[in-house]
Write a structure and sequence with these properties.
Helix 2 packs antiparallel against helix 3 (71-84), helix 9 (173-185) runs antiparallel to helix 10 (189-202) and helix 10 (189-202) packs antiparallel against helix 11. The chain is 63% helix and 0% strand. It is built from eleven helices and no strands.
């Protein structure tokens, strides 16, 4: 059974229309959407927060078609394309922002996420590194960077990024699940079991993770059995790091995690 790798993008709430999260260049007159655009973008976020993603996407497209030169309108439509799984469309929308707003970490995060969905892992890594250079305090960027390394087949590198993420939010569910998956890839069975158990304990009240729990329970049972057999036979159950193995070779972008 494959344990899906978490995509940080589906949990990141950028709050682009609140909390003072200004975009790079948004103070200039050319990049500041007029009030009508702001109202339209607010309605996009409202639909998104209500879970009405098709409506949010339609509103974002409509807003972008009217204000295609505005950073925020383009970014909002692009990130919703990523979240809906349209990586090709998202890259086409977001790439111009790398020139228009190169100091905005949001741009690099979502562009890197789109490339990750396309399987263009080198480009994804470079874009996410740019995002980290601009904002090293954003949890989702560290988790997403770890996902790229898992997909590249370098769990030991992914472990490094997740260790930083754990310092920012040690009980975050995406951090726990990705860390458990990486520990398992590295042959650290005992650590993987402990992390899976922490994930299960802390995800009980999270409906967005309900579909994952049966699969994690199944994986935890298999690992526990393997560890028990190893204890009886005296054969190592893989607590020591083993040679890197290929990462999960598909990402389920439809799960809400």
């Amino acid at each position: 059974m494959k344990v899906p790798v978490c995509l940080a993008i589906l949990f990141l709430n950028l709050g682009l229309m609140s909390g003072g999260t200004a975009l790079a260049g948004s103070e200039s007159g050319s990049n500041t959407p007029p009030l009508s655009a702001e109202l339209q973008l607010a309605s996009v976020l409202q639909a998104e927060h209500e879970g009405r993603m098709l409506l949010a996407l339609a509103r974002a497209r409509s807003t972008f078609e009217q204000y295609d030169q505005h950073v925020l309108a383009r970014l909002t439509y692009g990130r919703l394309m990523v979240k809906s799984g349209d990586a090709t469309g998202a890259v086409a929308l977001l790439q111009p922002l790398a020139q228009q707003a190169p100091q905005d970490w949001h741009v690099w995060f979502w562009l890197g996420s789109a490339w990750l969905l396309q399987g263009k892992l080198v480009q994804a890594a470079e874009a996410l590194d740019r995002a980290l250079a601009l904002n090293g305090e954003e949890l989702a960027v560290w988790v997403q960077r770890a996902v790229v390394e898992q997909e590249r087949g370098y769990p030991q590198h992914a472990e490094h990024y997740l260790q930083v993420a754990a310092q920012l939010a040690p009980e975050n569910l995406e951090v726990l699940l990705n860390a458990a998956h990486v520990a398992e890839q590295l042959g650290k069975t005992g650590e993987a079991i402990a992390l899976y158990r922490r994930f299960l304990s802390r995800s009980i009240s999270h409906r967005s993770h309900a579909s994952l729990r049966p699969r994690i329970l199944e994986r935890l049972h298999a690992l526990s059995q393997s560890q028990a057999v190893a204890a009886v036979t005296g054969v190592s159950s893989g607590d020591e790091a083993s040679a890197p193995q290929p990462a999960v070779d598909d990402i389920d972008s439809d799960d809400d995690f």
